[in-house]
Amino acid sequence: xxxxxxxxxxxxxxxxxxxxxxxxxxxxxxxxxxxxxxxxxxxxxxxxxxxxxxxxxxxxxxxxxxxxxxxxxxxxxxxxxxxxxxxxxxxxxxxxxxxxxxxxxxxxxxxxxxxxxxxxxxxxxxxxxxxxxxxxxxxxxxxxxxxxxxxxxxxxxxxxxxxxxxxxxxxxxxxxxxxxxxxxxxxxxxxxxxxxxxxxxxxxxxxxxxxxxxxxxxxxxxxxxxxxxxxxxxxxxxxxxxxxxxxxxxxxxxxxxxxxxxxxxxxxxxxxxxxxxxxxxxxxxxxxxxxxxxxxxxxxxxxxxxxxxxxxxxxxxxxx
Amino acid sequence: xxxxxxxxxxxxxxxxxxxxxxxxxxxxxxxxxxxxxxxxxxxxxxxxxxxxxxxxxxxxxxxxxxxxxxxxxxxxxxxxxxxxxxxxxxxxxxxxxxxxxxxxxxxxxxxxxxxxxxxxxxxxxxxxxxxxxxxxxxxxxxxxxxxxxxxxxxxxxxxxxxxxxxxxxxxxxxxxxxxxxxxxxxxxxxxxxxxxxxxxxxxxxxxxxxxxxxxxxxxxxxxxxxxxxxxxxxxxxxxxxxxxxxxxxxxxxxxxxxxxxxxxxxxxxxxxxxxxxxxxxxxxxxxxxxxxxxxxxxxxxxxxxxxxxxxxxxxxxxxxxxxxxxxxxxxxxxxxxxxxxxxxxxxxxxxxxxxxxxxxxxxxxxxxxxxxxxxxxxxxxxxxxxxxxxxxxxxxxxxxxxxxxxxxxxxxxxxxxxxxxxxxxxxxxxxxxxxxxxxxxxxxxxxxxxxxxxxxxxxxxxxxxxxxxxxxxx
Lengths: 320, 474
Prior knowledge:
The structure holds two protein chains of two kinds. Chain A is mostly helical. Chain A has helices at about 30-45, 50-60, 65-80, 85-95, 105-115, 120-125, 130-140, 145-160, 165-175, 180-195, 200-215, 220-235, 245, 255-260, 270-280, 285-300, 305-320, and one strand at about 25. In chain A, helix 1 (about 30-45) packs across helix 2. The radius of gyration of chain A is 28 Å and the shape is elongated. Chain B has two domains: about 1-130 and about 325-474, no CATH class; about 135-225, no CATH class. In chain B, about 45% of the residues lie in helices and about 0% in strands. The longest helix of chain B has 19 residues, at about 85-105. The N and C termini of chain B lie far apart (about 50 Å). Chains A and B meet through strand 1, helix 1, helix 2, helix 3 and helix 8 of A and helix 1, helix 5, strand 1, helix 7 and helix 8 of B. Strand 1 of chain A pairs parallel with strand 1 (about 125) of chain B, so a sheet runs across the interface.
């Protein structure tokens, strides 16, 4: 788009926060002041035109987090009946240039929802896999970008991609590249366990095997432990089954535990889980002993929490 | 577009990455410190050679900062041999924080510098790259004014002229007496989060006359933003999430405009945001996150007047919340396997008193650890103000929420009883002075806040007392 195409001589720019005196005053440069002043004036005039559309692009280039411009742009597109697929392409460019931008993902959802709501012919042209490259590029540069992952979740739900091979392959790849990427684990949990109709005992078993193997690689990783414990809780499995798994990471020999040279606990999460298993198995004193160990030795910063948990067990013990 | 503006706006964009996870707002950065870069990923460049950084050097540093008199000492507790981008940035962060601890072993709260930083920022003219904050005018005022009021002080107050200028700026963002909400800047469209920031600011300036004029109009505007599923969009065609719900509830509760119609469906919507990890996500089924968890849990305190009404999984929330505190840094993170950041001293830090008053415990987290992080790592030792972590820029946002976090370390609240009061849980926070044993170490640098709103408890109580007398919308 060329700038000379449009003139705005007939428009009186509105004021942005330029009045003086003003607290936290921003000394806008002329270009910013003029662009935003014109844009907000056109918005107030409810002008839906090509020149207004052009100006929204310029405004977004100046400040991608300016939510008013995005909403105005969307209204212009609809009024002018613009090609929404072209808009998606444009959007990708803006996303790549503004990695942390927030508005853009909501905007993209709006556009896609709109495409789906139009004639079946148009909506049939939309293929959700077209989102994968842009999402991959975004997550490559910031693998824990919360907004991108939230958008990805929306996409999966919208197009029922829970068991889409490409989606499953991607989330596996990203977990394996960094076992401590909690966003990726959360997304995997969403894919496999958020939709009750799609959960089978095979999936439950294979996910438990999958995460157990990765806990072996990084026993102190809270993300993988939360995933494992999340499955046990949501699927109502008995955590007592995990006793031997937990014991691999712990040598519960009290003499050795007191010897500082010997690291008897490779995973505080295994220790914590063992305390819960002991409670479940009614071995209350063992459970209490583990909470003491956590608070006094393996996880001192949370001593108050471990005492809180311990007190719960003691309450049960005294009530028997 | 000029190249200068392009560079500085993208630079600023990077500096403000944390806040985007929270209230959808931009973080202002101090112009003195704008050469710092603000992305976690920047550590990657440093971490090219494993020799640079080893577990040994970490352990040596931990030993070197050990102080038998201190109530908090860093501990190594969650290592294994696995390495990845996450572990690399985590190690590098621990190292820089321990170095800050080492360089500032006896750091005190720099009251005068903080007051100066805040007053200076209010009256500053910022260079053009601050345009990045152009949709956040009400937020800037809230962060600075609230930070100022949270600092305990006897001799300084803001002049009537300053208060008037604050009111003027907020007024420049009000659309049609609130019928179109309140925007982030003059002539922009109304936004629920900007409205929240503006209303809280007006509560701090005690501009009840203006608030009375706005309350019914804002109520109608909020209703117009309500979706069939109960949640609220931030603005026309905007997103809806736990933040927008919290902002609507906080404003409506303070102005006494909560009605059954407004509340419809919110409880079950919020319940659906609790994740398998125990924290809450912004929208159902995404990752548990500190900012959204704050919004969701604070919302329950506004929704309910009885403890027994709370029906999310409290035990799971407690576990997730306490695991946000890290054993070397003492500070708090916003998500599992993410770095500590001083702003979570409030977003996560406020969850602890909420939990404490519900379960009747006085110490759900390590207050000394968080205080150490705030004073020895997050404090800007030269210019005042607070930052995310060492090496990052000081800004208004981190300054306010770190001060709020410090207040949460310095005060405890009485446990809630199961009485028949009709008052929302949000207004039942009362200081527990029994825990104050008068030692020097218990000296307070801050004023107590109400954890549900993050404002001084007196300002909240006064506003509540005023607006409760007005009738609710029909």
